[in-house]
Prior knowledge:
The structure holds two protein chains of two kinds.
Chain A: E1 3-14, E2 17-28, E3 34-38, H1 45-52, E4 60-65, E5 68-69, H2 75-84, E6 85-88, H3 103-112, H4 119-132, H5 137-140, H6 150-163, E7 168-172, H7 180-197, E8 200-205, H8 208-214, E9 217-222, E10 225-231, H9 232-235, H10 242-249, E11 300-301, E12 306-308, E13 317-318
Parallel strand pairs in A: 3-8, 3-9, 6-7, 7-8
Antiparallel strand pairs in A: 1-2, 1-4, 4-5, 9-10, 10-12, 11-13
Helix pairs in contact in A: 3-6, 4-6, 6-7
Chain B: E1 11-22, E2 25-37, E3 42-46, H1 53-60, E4 68-77, E5 80-81, H2 87-93, E6 98-101, H3 115-124, H4 132-145, H5 162-173, E7 180-184, H6 192-209, E8 212-217, H7 220-226, E9 229-234, E10 237-243, H8 244-249, H9 254-261, H10 300-304, E11 310-313, E12 316-318
Parallel strand pairs in B: 3-8, 3-9, 6-7, 7-8
Antiparallel strand pairs in B: 1-2, 1-4, 4-5, 9-10, 10-12, 11-12
Amino acid sequence: MKALMEVQGLTKRYGGFTALDNVTLSLSDDAPSMTAVAGESGSGKTTLARMMLGFIEPTQGAVLYGGKDVAKMSASEKRQFRREVQPVFQDPFEVFNPFYRIDHVLTTPVKRYRLADTDAKAQSLIEDALKRVGLRPQDTLGRFPHELSGGQRQRVMVARAVLLRPRLIVADEPVSMVDASLRATILDELRTLNRDLGISIVYITHDLTTAFQICDNIVVLYRGTVAEAGAVERVIGDPKHPYSQLLVSSIPLPDLDKVWGADEIPVTEANAARLNNGCQFAPRCPSVMEQCWRAPPPKFVPDTQRLATCFLYDGSAVAPDDDVASVFRPPETARLG
Amino acid sequence: MSAPKEVDPVLEVTNLNVHYDTGHGPAKAVNDVSISLKPGERLGLIGESGSGKTTMATALMRLTRPPGRIASGSVMLDGKDIMAMSARELRETRLRDIALIPQGAMSSLNPVMRLEEQIIDAIVAHTSGMKRAALNARVEELLTNVGLAAEVARRFPHELSGGMKQRAAMAIATSLSPKVIVADEPTSALDVVVQRQVMQTLGRLQDGLGAAVVLIGHDMGLVAQFADRVGVMYAGKIVEIGPVRQMIEAPRHPYTRLLVDSLPGIKVKQALIGIPGLPPPLVNLPPGCSFSPRCPFAFERCKNEVPQPQEVGDRQQAACHLYPEHSALPPMPVGPNDTEAQP
């Protein structure tokens, strides 16, 4: 398999705190994919995203793009990388300079990467990018950020990324600050970009519902380690790791036959000390066993198209490869529209 | 819109209007809203950003600040009109009888005070003569009620996680056993597991106190998990209100239907359906029904005449011209998902 991006044994420590612990994940170059990375605050999902984007350097391990280590790229390679791997951030309010018109964030990349040799070409590129995300250029250009809604601003950021025709978009919680009614539309646009323009997408989120709807595969992180990974139908449809089970059962579904149980789940502190050895989830796990405290569980493969790092599946085969993508299912070629 | 009269309502809002004065005239953020709440009832109020739900929450406490003003209407709390109270009566009523759990508890706590001082502050402002030992015992009890350990009392807000701060805000809100709790998006910044813990804590507190709760949010799923009755706000008005099951399974207002449909499940992959268009500017509401520019069913009458709330089912009211001609909401017309309209 040729890889678009390879995340190899990636670890990030801040002082004594391990934000991400030895994560290996490769994104295939064979077909454009949509991969979700999910987990609670402090699970390391944003740390992973920032390293994939080359914003911060790993403590151990490496991010390879097109076979080259992002941390060791030459200036021209880095420039190419910056063009082909695009971020979309969480907060559509903070990413804009309030003194510049919307046009600024769109004309800057056109100039920087010399995408057009005439102003007319630049204009048509920008208009095309805006139309791709469902915005009307005549109503968007020339406005200031405060004149647009949060959903529109987030779409402008997606349009900016699309303008550069990237290979990969890393979207860190792109809709968590957007109204529920507008989320669906923005995510549908990401899916369309994936399908029509062949852009691979890494969708960082804590919302498993939307991950299920738009992604092929998912990686569930817990305190910097991979709890479960695989096809969304497997991991979200029938979770095996007790943490994924907790996550899935906590989704507030508008379904009165699926109300949360009355039993409260114990409160734990997100910033509590991490275990030196053993499973990170052990202190919260309802099925905790003696061995969970002694050593971290290997990546078991209880059925197909998923792995779960949990001793409950001791006896199942162990994943042949450290790469969690080794159990991923191939991306759907024909998705629902 | 009023509840059945077997039990006297603990909170009765009648024709409440809250306006923000702007250079172009008043923005009607709460536009002639009437609701009533029985003791122990859980009402969910949902709407998009800018639908007036937070304005509504602050107005219930009479905490509206300029440029906002309560233009007219009454809020009867246990028979007394909050809008007619003197400053002193109002100060005594807040927290004791009606308490607010604000949006983003992170910023509602004082960063330079230990948690116990903030809780005690609230109690001594309303009750005199409590000894320090009794106060400490009460703080511990309140923290235990919200699932926090007693030693958390000695901490500063920055030493708490988001979920813990939200619980701390709940401990303060329930410190005087209020009759009505107004919770304004209490979990908007929390992740799903913590959100569930916080909502379950709120439910348990409320059961213990027998208080009525107004839960404000934009997530139909969350409201469905918690509320007995759901009201849907659009452009400052309640466009539909009814028992939670009817609102989800048989909504009558097209907007409610679209809100429910915009939440995908985790059973089958489906096309993601958003609501096309944007809410109208509140300064210059379209004539007729405010939702008509975005409504797939809109017809001539909707553009001219403001629909009034009417009974459309058992304890369910909707403000929509489709009724009484129709007995249920017709199937949604399928059309291309239009691009987002501009304000």
